[in-house]
Amino acid sequence: MSAIELHLPALQVVLPLIGAMLAALTRSGRLAWAIALVVTWVTAANAVLLVIQVMNSGVPISYVLGGWSVPIGIEYRVDQLNVFVIALVALLGAVVLPYAKRSVAHEIRPELQYGFYTMYLLCLAGLFGMAITGDAFNAFVFLEVSSLSTYVMIALGRHRRALLASYQYLIMGTIGATFYVIGIGILYLITGTLNFADIASRLPEQMDAFGRPAMVALSFLTVGICLKLALFPLHVWLPNAYAYAPSVATALLAGTATKVAIYLLLRIFFSVFGIEISFRTIPIGQVLIVLSVAAMIIAAVIAVFEENTERMLAYSSVSQIGYITLGIALANQAGLTGGLTHIINHAIMKTTMFLALGAVVYRIGTSMLPNLAGIGRKMPLTMAAFVISGLGLVGVPGTAGFITKWYLVLGALEKGAWPLVAVIVASSLIAVVYVGRVVEVAYFKSPSAELADVKDPPLSMLLPILLLAAATLYFGFDTTWSAEWCAQIATDLLGGTS
Amino acid sequence: MKYDVIMRIGVKLVLPFILLFAFYVHFHGDYGPGGGFQAGVMMAGMLILYAIVFGNDALNRVAPRSFVERCVPLGALLFASVGLIGPYFGYRYLDYAPLSTNSIHAREWGILLVELGVLITVAATMTSIYYAFTERGQS
Amino acid sequence: MSVIEQFVSHHNYYVTILLMVSGLYIVIASGNMIKKLVGLSLFQTSVYLLYLSPAKIVGGTAPILDEKFQVYSNPLPHVLILTAIVVGIATISLGLAIVVRIYEVYGTIEEDEIFSSDGEI
């Protein structure tokens, strides 16, 4: 094993961190962008190498920081589950960045652009750290690193409401993170360790004496993380944050931030507490199912009535997160596979849609639905990508979204929960309505005179959009790297602990 | 306060000692309570005291705003880069063993460098907060 | 164990819970953005107490190895909370910075006034 391969887990976090500092040192938007471009693509390559390494070794890779052995030191632990999340985040972060140059130049004041790229890289570093670390408290610190940089990115939005959205998210996000710390604190009091694997091994023997505090810890952790992943009804911060943040930030956050929080939830449920405690001792599964169903229906209905397309997509995100948590709550092979697959599918689809809307904003300066009349004819490629991803959200066969829903339906049937099948179908039908509204306005209304000169965005913005739209189609046909991999992860999660 | 003689003379006398004490706290961090964080705050306190008495223009000559703001990421960069010494010599990230043959000494050096990064960042952050507050809305 | 005995021996946890709940209450009930941040800070601070209380070992000294002492306080929670304090400061100062920006743009930091000037967001 060559020298560099040994350090892949550390480099995954350290590279964006150093990149962020370099970007901040330049104090020039152009240079900062160049640094960010190099760093994101190198980290993406790093993540791919990490995937190969994990696939080859078959066992989790452990990397101890500073040479301090586990459980005294902090451990970076890479297994199938988190390398999957890391690869997703790294690739999305890299694909979005070429797009960022023009979009950021258009939406953010020149003297603040370098700050945006700094925060972009810091956010990535935080997300990687959250995903890769095997230490519960370390995860909190990285959670806050990514959150704080996210607040800044949102506050850089062009509308003054961006400040309010950022403030709101800061309050909610901090409460969520603090709940997480409380949960970890209680777990530490029970087990005397902070290493996830160590907690997991010590917890069962303590359950008789400290069963109730453990439940309290689990509840705090669940609520705290669900705040971060915007599970209904803890989603209040999300629509405004997504709607008023700069387009690039929205695209990044929609694809990555909530997904990493979901990973943390999975880690807590399946690896730390184990499926037995998480789902059978207290009815977290049932509560999650109810909330997921509420999210899938209610948020989708709200999305239908939104005039601001970015807010519409944000509510759609809340609804789609419902699918993922539903898959987790079902806690069976097919359901979990569906939930995990939706992490990647939803990330790709939503990022495409937000990038497409960002391109529209770049050309016409607004994303309000009435202003989009006829835009489909003026920006054919951009809107085609939007429609493809929209079909994915609906779950049309041949797109990635269909695969997810198929597994979720299987999972629900396996559980004998027929009503859930009806809910999945109903939510998909509502998705038809809100995606359909945009399609109707964009294609079947004639463009106004103001749109006469509008055309597709420059290639640097168009390519990422088309690439991701193609990925939506690709994952609809070939599921080797989505559903099949996720099925394997689901087996590990269910088998390794029950 | 520019024309207050006692203030000007008194502060001029005190400033070097604050700086000295800041360095003492930094280097003594290995043996007792202290370290880069506290030292950084003291150093920033010195700069801010100087600015309060002599005005922002004077501070701008000693520590220009753009320089101070660049120091914020610089300190963090130093912290992160010192960690890379380990992987370069075949150790783990944040392992300071290659800095010296004696492992305890090596850690001491490593921590001292890391704390230097912390000192730079903290001092620069505090000073730039002061700059941000006092110069806001003036330009 | 009598109720009073239990209360006295666990008094720091009761204080923690009181601080936690009052902090959360301020965040929810107050319409002033600065007061909300104060509440948030209180809420975070209560967690520091939650960590630090059990770290104190009765009769333990500062965890610097020395032949004269056998019992030490647990240093790990202190280190964790030092980190958490830094995170907390960063959060609160970022929050305050955003509030300053909000004040510059809206001319007020009362949530109801902002919503009435800008519509419910």
What does this entry look like structurally?
The complex is a heterotrimer of chains A (498), B (139) and C (121). Chain A is an all-alpha fold and 498 residues long. Chain A has a domain at 283-498. In chain A, 80% of the residues lie in helices and 2% in strands. Chain A contains 19 helices and two strands. Chain A has a two-stranded antiparallel ribbon with strand order 1-2. Chain B has 139 residues and is an all-alpha fold. In chain B, helix 4 (65-88) packs antiparallel against helix 5 (103-135). Chain B has helices spanning 5-27, 36-54, 56-62, 65-88, 103-135. The model of chain B has no long low-confidence stretch (mean pLDDT 87). Chain B has one domain (5-135). Chain C has 121 residues and is an all-alpha fold. Chain C contains five helices and no strands. The radius of gyration of chain C is 20 Å and the shape is elongated. Chain C starts with a helix and ends with a helix. Classes of the chains: A mainly alpha (498), B mainly alpha (139), C mainly alpha (121). Chains in contact: A-B, A-C, B-C. The interface between A and C is medium-sized, with 27 and 32 residues.
CATH architecture verdict of chain C: Orthogonal Bundle
> Mean pLDDT of chain C, nearest integer?
87
Q: What is Rg of chain B? A: 18 Å
Helix fraction of chain C by DSSP (H/I, runs of at least 4): over 70%
- What is the multimeric organization of the chains shown? heterotrimer
Counting H and I runs of at least 4 residues, what is the number of helices of chain B?
Answer: 5
- Structural category of chain C is mainly alpha
Strand element count of chain B: 0
Percent range for β-strand residues of chain C: under 5%
Shape of chain C: elongated
Task: Give the termini separation of chain C.
Answer: 52 Å
Number of domains of chain C: 1
